[in-house]
Amino acid sequence: MELIENLPEFSNRFPRWNGAENLSNYPFVTNTHSPFTPLRRALPMLNLALISSAGAYIDGTEPFNIESRDGDTNFREIPIEVGASDLLYAARGYDPAAVLRDRNVQIPIDRLLEYQANAVIGKLNETWWSLSSYIPNARLVAEEIAPKLADRLARYEIQAALLIPASRLCHQTLGIIARGLEMNGIPAIMLSVDPLMIERIRPPRTAYYDGEFGAVAGKPDWPEYQLRVLDEALRMMETFDQPGARKLSVDMESKVEAARGER
Q1: b/e burial code for range 31-70 (CB count within 10 A of at least 16 → b)
Q2: Contact 140, 71 (CB under 8 A)
Q3: What secondary structure letter does DSSP report for 121?
Q4: 70 membership: H or E segment, kind and range
Q5: Do the domain assignments include residue 219?
Q6: Does the residue 130 lie in any domain?
Q7: pLDDT tens-place string over residues 78-114
């Protein structure tokens, strides 16, 4: 199975893309099939990888290049000990206001460490992976980033990965990477707020809801909401027996809270 099933068509159309900021005329990847690797360990026994495409980088280091037509194909390994105040964001395609206010909306380190402390997951890997928020050349994602990232996760003995995109184009990037991880034997689940992109890319497992770009893991300064999003998505990993996308129930819970006059 190919990471990009229509790669010749994409490679033919991409040079003709006008580079518009709103992605008009952009030749989005279209897949029909999805790879699938069963989860071999229960959540309390696995080493979980976090992969974010919010464009985060450590203050004082070189930012991602978000002006390149192809996009920046480098990724960063960031220790979980690095604090939110030490992170900056090369943001394109999404508004970084929410993640600057509360990094957990895109990089839920604090929430996942809470799960680790309460034995919901075995452990959060000691480093997490940060990708550029703007990588239009999907061929480079499939041929360069995905295999390198799969190799790095294998070296850390990762048993599952959580992928959190920040923008519409990020959904394509991380969807391709999720496919690559599964084809290398690493189960992956992607959070999504764009079901149409999921239909195009066909990542193996997706948990989606009616959220916002730039705050895909939940609203800022609302840890209870973030925990609900993550808890339901992670627990879904254990129930998938074939590729697919499932809607989270957090929307319904939030409407109930609003009706009660709660947050």
Answers
A1: beebbbbebeeebeebbbbbbbbbbbbeeeeebbebeeee
A2: yes
A3: S
A4: none
A5: yes
A6: yes
A7: 999 999 999 999 999 999 999 999 999 999 999 999 9
